[in-house]
Amino acid sequence: MNTPPTSATEEQIAELVRRFYERALQNDSLRPVFEAAVADWDTHHRLVQDFWSRTLLDTSRYRGHPYSIHAQLPLRPEHFDIWLGLFRETAREVLPADAADKAISRAEHMAESFKAGMFSFPRYEGPKLWKSAL
Ligand code: HEM
């Protein structure tokens, strides 16, 4: 009996990205953030595909810094919960089980660190705030 393949293929990763965005753009909380930020969808899909290929297949096409990109978006903590819900669902559908586990735990870990960095402290609003408290 053949054991099922445990690592993802580039085709499966492309499908993961395609289906994930199909869902994300139907979601009323996520859609406006994506629509305001993404001008070129082909480029965006390719970047995200390269990112997951680096995570799952150890390739080196993705060289970006996702935290600094997300820290500049108008996100709230619940965006991450919705994003993760859609991602888990899509990863389980499209990827072999081991690869889905790996992708999901990487996404969960990133969401935790993004949230810790973005929402733990009140936003710094410039010197006016503390000067007025003097
Ligand atoms: C932890 C979960 C997430 C992961 C792993 C992730 C992954 C990524 C990656 C790899 C990129 C490409 C960054 C680059 O240009 O180098 C990206 C961009 C982007 N992500 Fe996320 N993302 C996450 C959560 C979210 C959430 C919750 C939103 C809310 C809608 C979001 C919206 C966006 C947008 C709008 C861009 C494009 C930004 C731009 O090109 O200006 N992401 N994401």
What does this 3D model show about the protein?
By secondary structure, this protein is mainly alpha-helical. The protein has one domain (about 10-120): Globin-like (Orthogonal Bundle). It is built from 7 helices and no strands. The longest helix has 23 residues, at about 95-120. The protein is globular. The site of protoporphyrin IX containing FE has 22 residues, from α2, α3, α4, α5 and α6.
The end-to-end span amounts to 76 Å
Q: Give the topology string: H per helix, E per strand.
A: HHHHHHH
Number of strands: 0
Molecular shape: globular
For this structure, the CATH topology is Globin-like
Heteromolecules bound = protoporphyrin IX containing FE
Number of domains: 1
- What is the CATH domain class? Mainly Alpha
Number of helix segments? Answer: 7
* Major β-sheet profile: none
CATH level-two architecture = Orthogonal Bundle
- Overall mean confidence score, pLDDT: 92
What is the strand content? under 5%
Portion in helices? over 70%
Structural class: mainly alpha
Give the low-pLDDT segments. none
- According to CATH, the homologous superfamily is Globins
Question: What's the gyration radius in Å?
Answer: 17 Å
InterPro entries: Globin-like_sf (IPR009050), Globin/Proto (IPR012292), Hemoglobin_trunc (IPR001486)
Binding site for heme: 44
Protein name: Globin family protein
Keywords: Heme, Iron, Metal-binding, Transport
